Amino acid sequence: MKKESFQNMSLEVAASTFAALGSEQRLSVLLTLVRAGPDGLTIGELGQRSGVTGSTLTHHVKLLAQAGLVTQQRQGRSIICAAVAYDTVQALSDYLLNSCCADAAETDHSHG
Fold first, then answer.
1. Which residues form the HTH arsR-type domain (predicted)?
2. 20 to 30 Å CA-CA from 11: which of 45, 77, 96, 106?
């Protein structure tokens, strides 16, 4: 997913991105990458820091990448993973909060 704004985010995109965050292990992997900063981590470093390793880590990184939350880039023999979630997470937040209280009954606070 490219940079999304809440105005053009579909319900389907929002749901699939929230679903990608719906696993404790995936959320841990994403938080580990956010903490590491824009340079990211190798798969090995990511596994050590997050406590998620092997094929489980590969599976979770793949799902996070499909949701547009992380990138994977080969550098020599290593695969570097990095969080790119900042704009996406902000857009998800905006998507939810933009309509806050839109259907709430207006209350007349005057006691006239």
1. 6-103
2. 106
- For every residue of 50-108, DSSP letters joined together read HS--HHHHHHHHHHHHHTTSEEEEEETTEEEEEE--HHHHHHHHHHHHTTTTTTSPPP-
Domain boundaries, the chain: 6-97
CATH number of 6-97: 1.10.10.10
How many CA atoms does the CB half-sphere of 86 hold within 13 Å? 8
Residue with tokens 């209350």: 107
For 100, half-sphere exposure in the C-beta direction (CA atoms, 13 angstrom radius) is 6
Backbone angles phi, psi at 80, to 5 degrees: -100, 125
pLDDT (tens digit per residue) in 22-71: 899 999 999 999 899 989 999 999 999 999 999 999 999 999 999 889 99
